[in-house]
Here is the input.
Amino acid sequence: MARTSVPIFTLPAIFRLDLWVEASFHFSRRRPLGAVGAAIIGLMIVVAVLAGFISPYDPLATDYGKLLQAPSSSHWFGTDSFGRDVFTRIIYGSRTALWIGFASSFMGATLGALIGVTSAYFGGKIDLVLQRFMDLLLSFPLIILALVVVSLLGSGMTNVILAITVPMIPRCALVVRSSALALREMPFVEAARALGFGPLRIIVRHLVPNVMAPYLIMLTAFLGQAILLEASLSFLGLGVAEPQAAWGLMLRGAAVEFAERAPWMAIYPGLAISLSVFAFNLFGDSLRDALDPKLRLP
Amino acid sequence: MIPTLFGVAVLIFFLLRVVPGDIVELKYAGAGTYAPKEALDRERAQLGLDQPIWKQFVTWIVGIPRLDFGTSMWTGQPITHEIAIRLELSIQLALMATFVAILISIPLGALAALKQDTWIDYCVRIFSIAGLAIPSFWLGIVIILAFVIYFRWLPPLTFTSFWVDPKANLTQLIWPALAVGYRYSAVATRMTRSAVLEVLREDYIRTARAKGLWERAVLVRHALKNALLPVITVLGLEFAFLVGGLVVTEQVFNLNGIGKLFVEAISQRDYTMVQSLVLLTSFIFIFVNFLVDLINACLDPRIRYR
Here is the structure.
């Protein structure tokens, strides 16, 4: 007699590796471009984590004997006006870009989603006040709001993350609120309310899991924008400060000044920005198509 | 529109006042000399910083309808004047970039839709996705780089007005306009493509073809005209990116426009200037979106009658 084993305890789906692997295979077969994007992102993360092992030089070490050297076998992407290795600085720059990109997108999307769900659940006055405030934030162009936050807090890593987070919040809140509004009328929410659950429990246990699709879509859509915004801020001298390695910063000042003698200083960091934003956009677009093709992003 | 702008004004004004450290301290710190407290206080009184905050706010807000934004805390010049001398450049650049974007996106998007799933379609799609990823300031640097290396030409340091010398003016501004316009066109190209694809499946296109209409007339008069609405909407929404593009590109091409003024004002903590410029950009931003709604209503009777 065959005995079927009944599992006493099953892991929640999010911790099951086999489901993740299966989903990734499915995704890459259906959306090859998205998979290419994901592969580039994966590579970037590996490079950023292992920066210390991969890069041949110290990103901050200046070498005045080797200023503005052309790309060669010892300096793949040449050296900059301080004699620093451009290749090494691009590798370390990926750390800055990814950290700022992930941190600000995550915070922006999460805060936005929480505001959106709260606003949709309570409705009425709370909804009105929150929405007016979000509208107010939306009436600033993205970069203007980020610049204002930088001017309030000053430049530097943490402040740049906050500066990018703030303009993301209303954009996510808008999208999440509209999907949460439909959820509020669902029978399971009514049932939860009938059982006497409080608003906190209904929001966290019943609404939040059901707006995961728009949340993830917004999160991935923000990643590319956040990296681009960080590069712009650093380029303007209002983001990450020297001597830290950041792609936007590498394009600032000396790159234009020495454009004629050392074009590699300007070319490679820009390629790094473009490639990473390109990868995040490819992945984000495919994820949106897979999760919710009808969703329009603001 | 007015309540939103008032909200923006209140928000920006009080946020800027919350932060510690003001322009007077920054000015003296830059000078590197010891400054007695009386000198600091005198300077503050001159700038009106010793007044209570609400009074400063009222002074500022009352002046705005008369186009008086107060004086810059850094240069002491009237802000209206500082903005006015730079406005021409930025507006011209914005218009040219928009023109470039329309010139790129509508033909390319329509072409991609007509040749769906051919290599032309793929090329256009890659071109537009790349436009989203390439930062406009880097594109600007690459353009300058190409000129410097191949033609030994550097962007001129002074701006020539269009009314003085149109040719010099256009050769100066066409490159920054291209750098910004390419970024601006990216989303519009994709929108044009999907809108044309959608319209081509409509019944009235089949009718137009069935009645033996010339194919070009079908495409231009029936398909493209109807596909333009979402494209115009997207151009309005993407206007924010145009502003962002201007801010960084003016820096690259050394153009003395509003964007450059804004970045300078922020690094100098010139509050009166920052608050006025923020209000101005939000106003333009809101106004452009209002204009887009208006244009859509003009083009589409269905919206008008709703």
